[in-house]
Amino acid sequence: xxxxxYRAMQGVIGMASQALYPYMVRERDFALLRLATLVAxxxxxxxxxxxxxxGEFFIRLIFGExxxxxxxxxxxxxxxxxxxxxSIFMGYPLFGAIGRPEIANKSTVVAGIAQLGFxxxxxxxxxxxxxxxxxxxxxxxxxxxxxxxxxxxxxxTEITGKRPSPPRAGTMSSLRYASTMAASPSTGTRP
Length: 191
What we know:
By secondary structure, this protein is mainly alpha-helical. The protein contains eight helices and no strands.
């Protein structure tokens, strides 16, 4: 029951991401992408709060007392959905707009392999319960988000349209920044 609800929520936000992808490739409207990501993050946070406050009541009301334990699974999957809501917009819409959709594929493949590893460990140790499977889904969604954030860092200037601020003088970061500025083409303006 909890996983069915998770899949339904994924389908809704996945459709929004798929609709945004061709527009982002064509228009590169990063302001709209930030807004969509913030809305998804806000909805995820509200969903987590709702489930933590009222989820057990509604699970028992809709599915009956026998499904009371599904509440714990629903809690984990709701957190996974909140992470998914952010990472889905940082997938194809973001990386497609910067001409690197293969990055979204890589993060999904790596997370899938990680989830298989998590599931294998749970099976070998005899811990393949519904809650543990939900936890592997959460872990996989977290891997996707972390990888996409990490792989987006080199493209921040392109995404934000701003050059990074110079670091404090005398640090290693300032030396890297100076070498980056020296290697980039001059625009006639100061960074």
